[in-house]
Amino acid sequence: KQPLLRWRTDVKFGYDIDPSMLVEKNGVLFFGTQKGFVYALDSKFGRIKWAYRVGVTLVNTPVPVDSNSVVLTDMDGKVLFLQEIDSLTTHATGENGFLINPDKESK
After folding, report:
1. Are 51 and 39 in contact (CB under 8 A)?
2. What are phi and psi of 40, to 5 degrees?
3. Partners of 24 in beta bridges
4. How far apart are CA 100 and CA 37, in angstroms?
5. Nearest CA to 39 among 24, 3, 19, 31?
6. Residue 101 has what pLDDT?
7. Within a 10 A sphere around the Cβ of 86, how many other Cβ atoms?
8. Rounded distance, CA 97 to CA 91, Å?
9. How many Cα atoms are found within 13 Å in the side-chain-facing hemisphere of 40?
10. Nearest to 97 by CA among 46, 81, 3
11. How far apart are CA 12 and CA 41, in angstroms?
12. How many CB atoms lie within 10 A of CB 89?
């Protein structure tokens, strides 16, 4: 038997070498990039729920708390807790980050 491709999503972060794993929790796929972004995708359809820039260095494998919250670290030594509220992401430490809301970007 051959695997069937169910979805493919280009998150447009370009060429990236990141040893971090993709992690799924309750229908949401979380992963980080070497350029400091964290993404959350709907695991059934591949739609980007949100992306958040935590810095400019590699993001280690995120640890989902539930489908709306994730804990992560980056190579700068930061520990972060991100939580989605009303389709936006709250950075619980209060530091500045760059939020990409795909629903608003496309309009």
Report:
1. yes
2. -125, 125
3. 29
4. 10
5. 31
6. 45
7. 6
8. 8
9. 28
10. 81
11. 13
12. 23
With a cut of 70, which residues of the chain have pLDDT below it? 86-107
For CA atoms 51, 36, 85, 94, the dihedral sign is: negative
62 and 31 Cβ atoms separated by less than 8 Å = yes
Q: How far is CA 18 from CA 32, 54, 103, in A?
A: 8, 15, 26
Give φ, ψ of 105 to 5 degrees.
-65, -35
| Token pair in block for residue 32 | 């980080």
Classified as helix, coil or strand, 105 is helix
> Which pTM was predicted?
0.78
The CA distance from 74 to 83, in Å, is: 17
In the block, residue with structure tokens 């729920």: 49
